[in-house]
Write a structure and sequence with these properties.
Layout (H helix, E strand, L loop, with lengths): L8 E4 L2 E4 L10 H13 L6 H8 L3 H12 L3 H19 L4 H7 L5 H12 L3 H14 L1
Antiparallel strand pairs: 1-2
Helix pairs in contact: 1-3, 1-4, 2-3
Length: 138
């Protein structure tokens, strides 16, 4: 029989998730693990419910812990990570904007464009044009 003090490691489709020795005594543990999961697997994650399920906690509890720990809820954080990665792809590679959206885990070009414009004030096409003009003017 396994001792309660041992750390349980569970393999999930997105990698191992470890239970802390005593989650109640590790401030923001699940929020931090969720953030690391988002940072590592952003392109495969679709929802807060999926992340919470992988962590083995409720979505509502995860949202609140994340908000307290980082000052933002996990959904906008996940979107921000995806858009930041999209910016890098738009700057460094000439692939279609639809392919960029898919690479960062946003399967709809329309949704990708909307999120991009909300966060950066312009469309992905405008951003790409601005970046290529900026490189020429340097």
């Amino acid at each position: 029989m396994e001792s309660a003090s041992k750390t349980k490691i569970e393999n999930t489709p997105l990698g191992p998730i470890c239970d802390p020795p005593d989650p109640g005594h590790v401030p923001n543990y699940w929020a931090q693990i969720g953030k690391e999961l988002i940072d590592r697997e952003y392109s495969r994650l679709r929802s807060v419910e999926e992340i919470a399920s992988l962590l083995g906690i409720s979505a509502g509890h995860f949202r609140e812990m994340f908000r307290v720990a980082f000052g933002v809820t996990p959904k906008p954080y996940l979107t921000q990570v995806k858009i930041n990665e999209a910016r890098k792809l738009l700057e460094s590679q000439f692939i279609s904007i639809g392919d960029v959206a898919v690479k960062v885990g946003i399967p709809s070009s329309k949704v990708f464009r909307t999120h991009f414009k909300e966060l950066l004030g312009g469309t992905p096409s405008e951003y790409r044009r601005t970046q290529s003009t900026r490189e020429v003017n340097l």
